Amino acid sequence: MLNDTLVIAVGVLTLLGAVVVAVIGREPLRVVSGLGVVFLGLALLFAGLGAGMLAAAELFLYVGGVLVIFLFVLMLTPSRGEDEPGVTSRHDSLAFTIALGIAVLVIIVLRQLEPSFQAPLPITSLQDVAEALTGEYLVPFEIAGVLLLVALVAVVAIMRGDDE
Amino acid sequence: MSLVVIASLLFAIGLYGVFTRREIVIMLACIEIMLGAALLLAVGLASIAAPVPTGSAAGGSVEAFGLIVLVVAAAEAAVGMSLALRLGRDDGIVRSDDIQEVQE
User: Fold this and answer.
1) Of A9, A38, B15, B88, which residue has the fewest beta carbons closer than 10 angstroms?
2) Contacts of residue B15 in chain A, CB cutoff 8 Å?
3) What interhelical angle do B57-91 and B96-103 show, nearest 10?
4) How close, in Å, is residue A164 to chain B by CA atoms?
5) Rounded to 5 degrees, what are φ and ψ at B95?
6) What is the pTM of this model?
7) Is the alpha carbon torsion for A53, A59, A60, A65 positive or negative?
8) SS3 A50
9) Chain A positions in Cβ-Cβ contact with residue B5 (cut-off 8 Å)
10) What is the ipTM of this complex?
11) Could you read off the pLDDT of A76-122 as tens digits, one per residue?
């Protein structure tokens, strides 16, 4: 199921989208487009790994929901002047070193798993996922539901603010 | 191996963005990228940690775990976005540096 060339192609596309968001993106539409490419790439990689349900959830939840919220927020908040550079930190080189160091560290640590890494996940049905959610993962599933409710109340409270 | 490299670089790019960008919304987007990279690595490594036969219930647990992580990430994004929107709309704050100035 996992074609290595295809994984690399989708992965490079995803990385390019991430670079647009994190490094060179200035205009809201470019940032949202880059983020969309990242989410789509992640969904394709999940599908390539055999996690079809997760790929669909990534598409519906992120591309259909979170991305639209990002677009709305970027459009509704005031933007900075066009003359400002995208990256304005004084610690660019230090940040680059730390980020690259972490990436190299993860790659070195996980390198030993290389021979068996291309084994795809077993094909699962919705029934398998539902059984896992209502069985082994029942408590985390309930906690996630409560967390969503708390987040909903928090969003309402934040947006109402001191209006009263 | 290619997936490990992709996920690691994706995480590193997100981390670099969080460190260097000052716009609150873009910092949130970078955090989402980091979460996605971590989830990709977790799902990718799941096939190594516990190889299971096709059709078994254990296969569903990988996706169930991923779905719960997605829900938590979406909740985080919703709260972060509402904070960013409130700060931008009411106080005109779009950069994290300006929050410090308001506190002072």
Assistant:
1) A9
2) 95, 98-99, 102
3) 60
4) 15
5) -120, 145
6) 0.84
7) positive
8) coil
9) 11, 107
10) 0.84
11) 887 665 555 555 556 778 888 888 888 888 888 877 765 555 556 66
